[in-house]
Amino acid sequence: MRTSIDRRDILGPRRYVPIRDEYRARVIALKRPRRVIVGDRVSLVFENFDTLSFQIEEMLRAESLVEEAQIQAEIDVYNSLMPAPGELSATLFLENPPGADARVELHRFIGLDEHVSLIIGPHRVRAKFEAGRQEDDRISAVQYTRYRLGPEAAAALAVPGTELAVEIDHPSYRHRTVLSEEARASLARDLA
Description:
Layout: H1 13-16, H2 20-31, E1 35-38, E2 42-47, H3 49-63, H4 68-79, E3 87-94, H5 102-107, E4 116-120, E5 123-126, E6 128-129, E7 142-148, H6 151-157, E8 164-170, E9 173-178, H7 181-191
Antiparallel strand pairs: 1-2, 2-3, 3-7, 4-5, 4-8, 6-7, 8-9
Helix pairs in contact: 3-4
């Protein structure tokens, strides 16, 4: 399991742009089973070396960042999202209904950081949210979460057919989504 992205892993815009379509198609296919819709307002994308390297390449391309210091700064940002050994990480998105007041809609999710779990067979792993993305009166629409798996949960994740789900038990938003076997296998590979 790769736990960090190095400069040599990143192509940069000059080398990335000519192969972008192929690279992008590969990562989109990888992300498909790793994207989880939980109810009508929350989605998660489980991240790993490939998904985060792709994000770096896309940011460098979009922002025309070519200086070594700029590239390293992006690598540093995304390395902070990389899962550590024995851990999964996911970007969590809070989506607002069209035309809704974002502040009002997001306000109902305050306290979400105590109410998201990854269920692996009989094991419940509570999400640990990145600090600074929620206050008493506001919450960011993008959250970064980590799931520290103990040895038993990690072993269960490796077993084909083990039920895997994301559960939110927030007082104003209660939903559970069971992930596919393809998602379980993809996340298990991250820990291997």
